[in-house]
Amino acid sequence: MGLQLRKIGNKKGQADFISLFFVLVVLFGVSIFAIILYNAYDANIKDNLNDALTSSTPVDSSANITKILDQTSGGIRMLNPLFPLLLVGLFGFGLVMALMGKSHPAFFFVGIIILAVSIILAVVFSNAYESITQNDNFVDSADEFQIMSFIMGNLPLVIFILFLAISAVLYGMRGGTPSGGAY
Description:
About 20% of the residues are buried. Helices cover about 75% and strands about 0% of the residues. The protein is an all-alpha fold. The longest helix is centred in the N-terminal third of the chain and has 38 residues, at about 20-55. It has one domain.
């Protein structure tokens, strides 16, 4: 008489919609990271780096310190135009997760509950992003990231569109069983 473990059931249905949370957290994390990184560079590191490069470079050197500093800050600013590519990649991730899963239509109601929670979190994350970027210390940094601010301002809509796409893949694009039965 031993203790036996048995499989409780197939919980794969709700795993398809869990990718909404992943997309939500990654978008919020990258946007906050970019704003804080640019602000830290612009407010603190840029001046210290300028002083260090100026004092360590020989006078007769052909190094263009201004160009070096512009390239460094330009690399951080490149996160703004690349943010839509991240969004497309995350949408692709969510859709691939939905394609790989086989979900019963009954799990759609579980998906509605997950959607409600993710929309609430999206509103909280969107408001948190707006509060951070409206802070006096980050206003200049937020002006450099207009695309990111637009997407984060519409984060609940982005999550809802992703939910619709995942639902369409899960429930709308499934082929039926072939007629005639198995041979």
